[in-house]
Design goal:
The chain has helices at 2-10, 28-36, 56-59, 64-74, and strands spanning 41-44, 77-80. With 86 residues, the chain is mainly α. The chain has a two-stranded antiparallel ribbon.
Length: 86
């Protein structure tokens, strides 16, 4: 858990709000927790549902490190894949 909190702090995100889910000031901690539970996450452009990356269904991930990289690079909204693919 400490490593998770350090990673969030590096990104300037207060992990204290992670328990608030997607109502939190920043939803990244919730996306990481869902990814750690096996839900595949993909970055989308802010205020849209348009993926930041091509091949988004194949590139969606459960890897927190990859999510952190996308967060630093794109500063995206994050979408959770649903349906059979997940």
């Amino acid at each position: 858990m400490e490593q998770f909190e350090r990673a969030l702090t590096k990104l300037g995100i207060d992990s204290a709000y992670a328990h608030e889910g997607f109502r939190a000031p920043h939803p990244f901690p919730s996306a990481v927790r869902l990814a750690m539970r096996g839900f595949r996450v993909t970055p989308v452009r802010v205020r849209t549902k348009i993926p930041c990356k091509r091949g988004w269904t194949e590139n969606a991930t459960t890897d927190p490190a990859k999510l952190a990289m996308w967060e630093a690079h794109f500063n995206p909204n994050l979408s959770i894949l649903t349906g059979r693919a997940n």
